[in-house]
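Look over both lines:
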Amino acid sequence: MPTPKRARKQPATRHVRRSVTLPPRIAKQVETLARQHDLSDNRVLVELIEQGIEARQQKEKAFFQLAERFRSASDPEQVKQLGDALGRFVFGE
């Protein structure tokens, strides 16, 4: 008697294992956050990395929006203000 074919499951999202060395101060902060939120150190690291990536993407988007406003500005005073804002964006205050 033939055995029934098993439905193929979609492979689960594959996780990639990474090894990271953290400075002691950062490691302590990660442990503290994990304890406060009842999470594993690994989960805290993943969430912090995700938030960091999202923040970087938002900053990049804001930069390009500002650059577009700068390029399309025609008023000399506005051009100066936007140029100054771009400079602060790139080089900090």
About this structure: The chain has a mean pLDDT of 89. The CA atoms of residues 19 and 72 lie 46 Å apart. The chain has one domain: 24-91.
